[in-house]
Design goal:
Blueprint: H1 4-9, E1 24-28, H2 34-45, E2 50-52, E3 64-71, E4 74-81, E5 84-88, H3 90-96, E6 100-108, E7 111-115, E8 118-122, E9 126-131, E10 136-140, E11 143-151, H4 152-156, E12 168-171, H5 175-189, H6 196-221, H7 224-242, H8 251-258, H9 262-269, H10 275-292, H11 301-307, H12 313-324, H13 328-333, H14 353-362
Antiparallel strand pairs: 1-3, 2-5, 3-4, 4-11, 5-10, 6-9, 6-11, 7-8, 7-10, 9-12
Helix pairs in contact: 5-6, 8-9, 11-12
Length: 363
């Protein structure tokens, strides 16, 4: 997942900075020879996105810069770079294991994002919410944006609809969105000068603001009946999370436990690919997290399979490969199709700490 010296040396990847201060990193390819700049950028940003750009746009040089800091267990970063295409497909999702939300403001430039059947224009002065466990493809102009990457569990319990945030788009004409944007820009201005405790407290405040922003939008647009249905759906999702290891976790059982008809349950989950598909996706995403987690490295593939409702490692492996394109053993053995390393003069001098921070978040 990582490039550069941090990955090869086995160095500690947990967030670090000046003693007592919040960590700060600045990655900039501007000091490299022009023909190497895009290749190094592509390798580095592969920690979260696969990128591409026409050769005519980068053969004579390519500008890319990331300024990042940590607000407790969240990463805040400003990215300034040229036009390109960003992709998170099933393979990338399986490799990095990021099960996070990303709140992103475009400051200058714009992008068009495609996720499933949805297409969203994301211009300057607007906010887009990503679920990083979902696939997407974005075609971006030359831009500057500000992103906050948040572990799912930190934010999900604060939200009315935690699994329905992907591709939600907001303008800064909405007061809570404008307040959040000002807050994150202010935090970025003072990155590196905050104490660790100040940064952690700002992270808590950011979570409160984000929840207020996302929930207010639901409150404004949903009827009382819709809010009630969202609450019922959240309860069903929690039941699914609690019973992932049970092979008898079925739509019929869920409907009975939730006190609703199967017709209502099916209708509720239809926009998400159906209830059976949702159970399967939840099991496989959780299994991926366990395969990547150091805490579960001693468990056999059969144990991982049983923990997620599969009766055998063969059935688990077949479902996993169909979803992610690689097998559970590939993940466990580290035999992933990582991008080739850029063996380019000078790239070892770059500050690539932000890559390690993203890996730290995913662990």
């Amino acid at each position: 997942m990582l490039g550069g010296d941090a990955a090869s040396s086995g160095a500690d990847l947990s967030p670090q900075g000046r003693r007592g201060f919040a960590p700060e990193a600045l990655f900039d390819v501007g000091g490299l020879v022009p023909q190497d700049q895009f290749g190094v950028w592509k390798e580095s940003i592969a920690v979260i996105f696969d990128v591409d750009a026409p050769r005519n746009d980068w053969r004579d040089g390519f500008g890319a810069r990331i300024h990042a800091t940590m607000l407790g267990p969240m990463m805040l970063a400003r990215c300034q770079t040229q036009a390109q295409i960003f992709t998170r497909g099933a393979g990338r999702i399986s490799q990095d294991g990021l099960d996070h939300y990303m709140i992103q403001f475009y400051e200058t430039g714009a992008q068009r994002v495609v996720s499933g059947s949805r297409e969203i224009d994301h211009p300057a002065s607007t906010m887009l919410v990503y679920d990083l466990a979902r696939e997407m493809r974005a075609t971006a102009d030359t831009f500057s944006n500000l992103s906050l990457i948040i572990p799912r569990e930190l934010l999900s319990e604060r939200l009315i609809a935690p699994d329905d945030q992907h591709m939600r788009h907001f303008t800064c004409q909405q007061p809570t969105v404008a307040i959040l944007w000002d807050f994150l820009r202010g935090a970025m201005v003072h990155a590196g000068n905050m104490s660790l405790s100040e940064a952690e407290n700002l992270g808590v405040a950011a979570l409160t603001l984000i929840a207020a922003c996302l929930n207010a939008a639901h409150d404004e647009n949903l009827s009382h009946e819709q809010v009630r249905n969202l609450a019922r759906m959240t309860a069903v999702r929690r039941m699914i999370q609690t019973h992932l290891a049970d092979p008898d976790l079925t739509p019929e059982w869920l409907a009975a436990e939730a006190g609703m008809s199967r017709t209502v349950l099916y209708r509720m989950f239809e926009p998400m690919g159906g209830i059976a598909g949702y159970i399967r996706e939840t099991r496989l995403r959780r299994a991926l997290q366990h395969l990547l987690s150091p805490q579960h490295q001693q468990r056999s593939l059969l144990e991982i399979a049983l923990m997620h409702g599969y009766g055998s490692d063969t059935a688990f492996g077949r479902a996993f490969k169909k979803r992610f394109g690689i097998t559970p053993r590939d993940v466990r053995d580290g035999q992933l199709p990582f991008p080739e390393r850029a063996a380019m003069a000078g790239h070892d001098r770059l500050d690539r700490q932000y890559e390690g921070w993203l890996t730290y978040l995913a662990s």
